[in-house]
């Protein structure tokens, strides 16, 4: 691998990884240069560091060249030469910054990995630095260590927080934070281990393992509850950090291991942080993988070209690298290595007899081993356990995502009920959906039509919701291989994450938008004021995101990660994610100065730090006040019922149902009635407009006349319902209050309740503000006659559109 830098400009090159290599090596690095005489000279790599969040790797050679590799973008580039360096580490809370320990003046340099600019330099060491690490609990605490000293830095003010000098005593062999950052652990060359409490830096324990001689390395599990110790003696000790006692001692001679140079646990998915695979670099430069539960060596890596000098494991265990003695770097994908190790064990396992008939295959399927496996899977798929895994790794593995989502949503696998919906065929509302969306894959289009049709047959409301295809499309792309799981997953999401979305359908979900606005007002009033100044409502900065399930604003990988978290948390988490997206993108949003620019912003993918995005979502979920928290209005999670049919969707808008049924009965008795439903609605609205234009005394008469109109409307429904007993029975629970609900619906559309907006308005005392934002204000009884007249005029048009839409849908059904 060779590259060149042109001044301060970084030139990036394409990178090609091996796809599922047999030995797990996805990439091999070597740096070769040509001398003036034409001879090639290979420069040895010395150190490396992973950054799992962005799939990055930094490697440095012994002359100071630092190479950055981006596995997701498949690119690599070289930073400017800082001189020979002895340690590298990415900054956890600033992923573009790399910390480099140089031999020049023994400095610790902070470098921007995109521009190679030096942003900070720390000095104070008297020997070359061998170790750099950050605390997980205190993001501003940096630990740097050389064999003779260790320094804890406070990065807020760039000062030394704690210094450990060993000039007059045994030198430091290794020093590190425990994964939980509760302790600081140092291993010294006199075979002692010293443990300090991180908060106070007071010594809490000293361990002197009598069996170990020439102690070289210690390692911790991801949950920090167990420690492994080893050295040049053929002994491995596992130590409990909870009880401060040794758990077990392992004789390494039975594995032909005479000593250990380096230890590290390999985190695996679904192990909950209590890692059981331990990597051991032996004295003869061979890397062994030991299962500490079964005490078996499951795999070993011994490159033919050269022995292994050191190895580095990424924080999540996704990758690891081996720096060979000749200077090359082999980069491994851990899952490929584990799969290869498993297949190798299976090949060496003796097989007495293979089932050769259908009877024997059935016996194998119902064997006790299969039952045990299913039981273990149920234990592994426990929602609390899955959530711990998610919080540790940040996402679920692609390989098991569909299984995990199925477990989180508790889908019943009702094959009979699903078959009934499929047999109804394509719903008339979605027969020509390809004219609305450009879908190149015929398979995807077929699956989308089938899903939407099943939803519409399950609940007629889903046949008239225009946003539904955009909402379900990303789920189709992810789960289309299992149509049953796809339908039940989307149906469960509509039941839970989409609560209160359809109470005013086909109008916007006023309650949901009010909740989001109140949360934004509590946590970032300035951003809300910016939206109001531009006349931007929650329908732009919230509803646009919700109706597409975040698919328009996030990349595919970001969307999958977000929905891992949405499905693993309470239904309110989705609304918090909407607010979080706006707050994290605050700097970009405040630079937009027009309504059109903001609308465009929420219809395109914008770069976002997914780690900050998710972190802010959890902060909002936990720190939002109870009086405006969505969980106050949401019901607990409800799964689909298991059986021969699915339960009825209860989030149906009752007012819309009664309007539609009244429309059907009107068509059947049109010849005998004096007024049609459309004419009656128009006459009622005209009376309302006239009454509102009168004085306050006349407004009382308006209420009385409205009651008269409602009675007339009820009598009209009663006369019509006599001709169709079946429809009357279906609407029995809602018919008596259909008019009241209709007028409540229409009033709430114009005056949505928003308690917090009054509160924030009083706090700021902004009495002279001329901003008008319909979704940012609560209802008021002191509205001017002119404003009321305009609203009623708009109201009349909306009702006419609604009735016209249902008229068309009724004809299509007939």
List keywords for this structure.
single chain; 814 residues; alpha+beta; Cyclin A, domain 1; five-stranded antiparallel sheet; four-stranded antiparallel sheet; 25 helices; disordered N terminus; disordered C terminus; WD40/YVTN_repeat-like_dom_sf; cytoplasm; cilium biogenesis/degradation
What would you say this structure looks like, in words?
α12 (538-547) packs across α14 and α19 runs antiparallel to α25 (785-813). By secondary structure, the protein is α+β, with helices and mostly antiparallel strands. It contains 25 helices and 31 strands. The longest helix is centred in the last third of the chain and has 29 residues, at 785-813. It has a 5-stranded antiparallel β-sheet, with no helix packed on it. β19 and β20 form a beta hairpin. The protein starts with 12 loop residues before the first strand and ends with a helix. Among the domains are: 505-634, Ypt/Rab-GAP domain of gyp1p, domain 3 (Cyclin A, domain 1, Orthogonal Bundle), CATH 1.10.472.80; 654-752 and 779-813, no CATH class.
């Amino acid at each position: 691998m060779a590259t060149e830098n042109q001044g301060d400009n970084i030139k990036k090159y394409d990178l090609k990884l091996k796809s599922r290599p047999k030995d797990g090596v996805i990439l091999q690095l070597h740096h070769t240069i040509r001398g003036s005489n034409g001879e090639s000279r290979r420069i040895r790599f010395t150190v490396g560091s992973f950054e799992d969040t962005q799939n990055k790797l930094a490697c440095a050679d012994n002359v100071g060249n630092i190479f950055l590799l981006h596995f997701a973008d498949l690119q690599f580039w070289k930073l400017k030469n800082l001189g020979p360096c002895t340690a590298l580490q990415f900054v956890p809370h600033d992923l573009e910054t790399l910390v480099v320990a140089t031999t020049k003046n023994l400095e610790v340099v902070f470098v921007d990995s995109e521009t190679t600019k030096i942003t900070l330099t720390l000095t104070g060491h008297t020997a070359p630095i061998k170790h750099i690490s950050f605390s997980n609990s205190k993001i501003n605490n940096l630990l740097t260590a050389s064999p003779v000293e260790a320094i804890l830095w406070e990065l807020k003010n760039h000062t030394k927080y704690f210094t450990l000098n060993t000039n007059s005593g045994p030198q430091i062999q290794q020093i590190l934070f425990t994964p939980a950052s509760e302790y600081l652990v140092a291993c010294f060359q006199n075979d002692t281990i010293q443990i300090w409490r991180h908060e106070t830096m007071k010594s809490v324990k000293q361990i002197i393992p009598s069996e170990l001689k020439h102690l070289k390395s210690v390692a911790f599990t991801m949950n920090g509850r167990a420690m492994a110790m080893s050295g040049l003696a053929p002994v491995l000790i596992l130590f409990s950090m909870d009880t401060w006692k040794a758990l077990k001692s392992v004789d390494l001679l039975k594995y032909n291991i005479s000593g250990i140079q380096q230890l590290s646990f390999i985190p695996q998915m679904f192990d909950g942080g209590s890692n059981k695979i331990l990597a051991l670099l032996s004295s003869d430069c061979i890397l062994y993988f030991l299962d500490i539960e079964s005490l078996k060596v499951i795999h070993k890596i011994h490159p033919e070209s050269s022995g292994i000098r050191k190895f580095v494991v990424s924080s999540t265990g996704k990758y690891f690298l081996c720096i060979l003695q000749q200077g090359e770097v082999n980069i491994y994908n851990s899952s490929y290595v584990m799969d290869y190790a498993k297949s190798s064990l299976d090949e060496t396992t003796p097989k007495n007899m293979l089932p050769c008939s259908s009877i024997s295959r059935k016996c194998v399927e119902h064997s006790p081993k299969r039952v045990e496996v299913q039981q273990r899977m149920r234990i592994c798929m426990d929602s609390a356990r899955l959530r711990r895994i998610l919080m540790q790794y940040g996402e679920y593995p692609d390989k098991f995502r569909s299984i995990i989502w199925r477990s989180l949503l508790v889908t019943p696998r009702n094959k009979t009920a699903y078959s009934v919906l499929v047999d109804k065929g394509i719903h008339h509302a979605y027969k020509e959906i390809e004219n609305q969306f450009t879908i190149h894959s015929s398979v995807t289009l077929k699956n989308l039509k089938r899903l939407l049709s099943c939803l519409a047959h399950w609940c007629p409301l889903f046949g008239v919701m225009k946003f539904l295809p955009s909402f379900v499309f990303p789920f189709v792309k992810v789960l289309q291989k299992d149509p049953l799981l796809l339908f039940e997953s989307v149906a469960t999401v509509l039941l839970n994450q989409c609560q209160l979305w359809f109470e005013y359908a086909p109008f916007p979900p006023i309650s949901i938008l009010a909740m989001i606005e109140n949360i934004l007002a509590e946590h970032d009033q300035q951003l809300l004021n910016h939206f109001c100044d531009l006349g931007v409502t929650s329908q732009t900065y919230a509803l646009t995101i919700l109706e597409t399930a975040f698919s328009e604003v996030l990349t595919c990988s970001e969307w999958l990660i977000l929905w891992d978290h949405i499905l693993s948390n309470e239904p309110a988490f989705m609304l918090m994610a909407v607010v979080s997206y706006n707050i994290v993108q605050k700097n970009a949003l405040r630079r937009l100065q027009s309504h059109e620019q903001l609308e465009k912003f929420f219809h395109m993918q914008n770069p976002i730090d997914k780690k900050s995005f998710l972190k802010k979502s959890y902060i909002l979920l936990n720190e939002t006040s109870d009086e405006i928290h969505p969980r106050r209005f949401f019901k607990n999670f409800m799964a689909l019922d298991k059986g021969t049919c699915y339960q009825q969707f209860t989030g149906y808008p009752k007012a819309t149902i009664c309007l539609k049924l009244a429309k059907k009965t009107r068509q059947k008795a049109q010849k005998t009635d004096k007024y049609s439903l459309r004419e009656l609605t128009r006459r009622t609205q005209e009376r309302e407009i006239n009454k509102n234009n009168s004085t306050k005394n006349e407004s009382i008469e308006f209420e009385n006349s409205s009651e008269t109109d409602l009675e007339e409307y009820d009598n009209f429904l009663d006369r019509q319902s006599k001709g169709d007993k079946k429809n009357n029975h279906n609407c029995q629970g809602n018919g008596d209050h259909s008019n009241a609900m209709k007028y409540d619906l229409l009033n709430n559309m114009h005056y949505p309740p928003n308690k917090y907006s009054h509160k924030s308005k009083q706090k700021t005392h902004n009495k002279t503000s001329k901003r008008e934002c319909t979704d940012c204000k609560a209802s008021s009884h002191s509205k001017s006659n002119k404003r009321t007249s305009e609203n009623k005029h708009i109201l009349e048009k909306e009702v006419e559109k609604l009735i016209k839409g249902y008229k068309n849908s009724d004809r299509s059904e007939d």
